[in-house]
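Dig into what follows:
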Amino acid sequence: MSADFVVFAQPSFDPNEYANAILAGEPYPPQSGKTKPAKSASFEPASEDVSVAISKLTFSIDDVEKQVKNVVTTHHEELLVQAAGVTELEGSLSSVSNGLNELDLSLEKYVSRTFRSTLQTHVSNLERLQQASDILRRMSRFVILTRRLEIQLAEMNKGEASDTADTPKSKNDADRPLSTLTHTDSALGNADEDEKERTISKAALTVAELTALLDNGPTDQRADTEEESNTGKRVSLTSIKAVAAHLPYIDAARARITTDMETMVITGLTTLNQSLLASSLQTAHNLRVLPELVQNLVTDLSDAVESRIRSAFDITRISKEVVAKDPASASPGVLYKSRVRTEPTNVTAPQWTAALWNSLESLIEEMADCCVKVYTLEKVLKLKRDTVTQIVFLDEAMKVLENKPSAIFWASLGRSLEKQARDSAKGSSFLQQALSSGYPRLLRLFQSFFSKIAVETDTVYTQAQQSPETVIVLRALSNFESLYLSRSSNRLNEAIGQAFSGGTRSPPGMAEGINIARTVANELDSAKFDPLLVRSVAKYITRSMELFLSRADSITTRERSAVTLVGPAATAQQVVNGQLATCLYHSWYRLQKLQDEYPEGVMSILKPGITNILSAFEHIVDPLLAAIRREVGAIIAKLHRMDFGQTADPMSAMSGGPSPYMKDVAEKLSFIKEEILSLLNVPDVSRQWIISIVKYVINTFVLHASIAKPLSESGKLQLTSDMTELEFSLSAFMSDKTQTKRGVDWDSIGDDYRALRAMRQLLFLDNTMLASPKHTIGLPPLIVLHHILVRSPIPLPHTLHGWAEAEYVKWVNEHSEEEAWTLVESDLTHWEKMTEVEDGDPAAAAEYIQLARAVLDNAAGRPGA
């Protein structure tokens, strides 16, 4: 190659560097060891023109291309042969590559097969070693546990031997003091028992570990899970002859421990020994059979109660028992033997009843024993815990049980009682009759059952509170309760029906009312001992009260003839209503006294019915009392038909008798007392009615007398005579034949009677004394005002407003005193204004206006009167 082209053939040739070197006039490639000359600041031309260099370069490239073309043209045959050889060489190389790959695979397979076989051999050997080690470890554990079990069984045998030897020893110690025997022997016995229980519990734990060991399970919770996953399936120890030889011994030991455990459980439940029961449950837990044991115990106790209930209600068993006790009551036939009777005769009924109640009493005793045992078992289960896991035994037992033992027992007891009670009532009329009529006695038995178990359980059955368990049991007897309540309701309805059997011709009176109330009280008293039964009876009594009221309402007369007071005798309707009101009152009077004997819960049921009876009584009496007031008020209003303003000889006026209207009042009061009020045989209420009527009569008369105008001196004397007659009439009206005290109790009338007495003095007072409270003491201010206006020319308020006297008196009774005073004051004001307008003489009434205003000021408590 030419020296000019050597530079281009260098591996480090860079065309950019070469071009820069040519432009800079520097050699290329730069020589090592020579520093690059510094560029001069001046732009001097290069030693060789660039265009010349480029021309040379172009020429050289063209020359290279020509030479390459010449070489290719000259040697193209050889080049083609070489190109074909390259293709063949690629195929050969591909074959070689495939052969090498196959060689690598063969080598890998060989190496893998060799190492895998070796590894499998080693792994198998390791597994066998581990399995052998596990077997040896379990064998070692088995030997240890077996020896421990032998020691524990030996201790158990020793304990039983000592218990057997204690009996003759105690006979030899018969001469020792009782206190010494009790203290020493009981302490030793308790210590031996505790030691024996601990030994049995330990032996049970040992047997449980041996069983787990023989069942290929871990002997404890510290088993290595990684070792188990590597060793695979364990070899059972039972396949080893040395172990198999001990299997009968282990089974016998387990059977013996189980038997001792069951004996301890039964003894603990029988004696209610919680310590012994706890030890037996611990033994069961160690044997891994605690849930099954508890389930079996609860099931056995429930089944025992169910069986005893079935036996108690078995009429065939009762029949056989009666026949066995009294063979003479059997059929007298010798050649013919009748079937077992399922119903008693009239002769044997008492024996059957006694046998039934004896059976039920025994049932209650056994139910109480079983219930206490269940609660004792549950109490111990709640207290005991696993010493390792701290799991409560009750939670452990709940893995199998559906509910707590006590809940299971109560549910089973309720179902059994309900089923047997229902079936027995359907199958035997004797049982239905005996238990429904004697239901209170049956309830007392169950109350004794609740009281017996209350000490050991959390059940409560009192008037204030009843546990859900007790309610469940008593609901099972609802069939007999319904029959008893039906009989109780029938007795009440019969008493009511008998009272109204006469209808309107012979209505019920005091005797019938007392009889109805007594029947109600008897029914409540029979159920008083039971809080639930007495409420049920009260509900049925309420229904009977509704019947009582409906029957009473059907014969009550509300016609005008029932309240008319024409006389001379009471109407038939008044007689019927009087009898009926007497019956209602005496029933109510005795029923309302029950609130002192029964709790609020019972009275809340009875109160609506009792209140309705009182309302029915008032609906009969109130219209009659209103008619009496209305009739007497109308007679007193006739006072204004009399002329009290005429002048006559005072002596002749004094000798005259009472006015005709007052005679009518006296006759009417006598008629009311003798004919009307006598129909109502209710002494306590009648006294109140009489006092109320007397007060009304006095108040009405005083009001009418105070507005009688004009009033002369003879008129005053006539009013005084009428007042005396009225007092005599009222005294006779108030008198009672049964009273021992002479005279009438006017103190009970109070201010009204004092106003009547003071009215006499008011009539004869001077004008100057009318405004003095000292002289008008006992009189209401309105009466004094009326009398002042009567003496004056000022018209009275009713005259000013155009009212009748009776209307004005009615208005005064319906409004307050202040309103009446205001009406009088407005009357005075109106008179003053009218006097000014009409130019009248104000001095004519000035004195009376001043007196009236003074009375108003005194009444209102205003100063300056």
In short: The longest helix spans residues 76-172. The chain has 32 helices and no strands.
